[in-house]
Amino acid sequence: MLPLCAVIISMPIYEYTCAACGATFSHLWRSIQTASDAPAPACPTCASPQTQRVLSRVTVLGGMGGLTPGEQAAAGAQEARLASITPKEQIDRLRGA
Hints:
By secondary structure, this protein is α+β, with helices and mostly antiparallel strands. The chain has a three-stranded antiparallel β-sheet with strand order 2-1-3, with no helix packed on it. Helices cover 39% and strands 15% of the residues.
């Protein structure tokens, strides 16, 4: 069995939008070469061939370089704790006044 990353690289999923009805849909291709050579798939909603590939948003998590939702929450909590601490300079100014 291939590792998950090999499957993703070998079988890309592209996002398309339909010019006729405005629907957005995803299409799984067997290979990057097939996706490059074949015409865009017809819209599954209205069957129009007037579809165009669009740039999809991606999210990078965990070991791939980004933060997982749990890590994001912990980082946000740490930032909130640090923001609630009064800086030493401000304390000194308040004591001197």
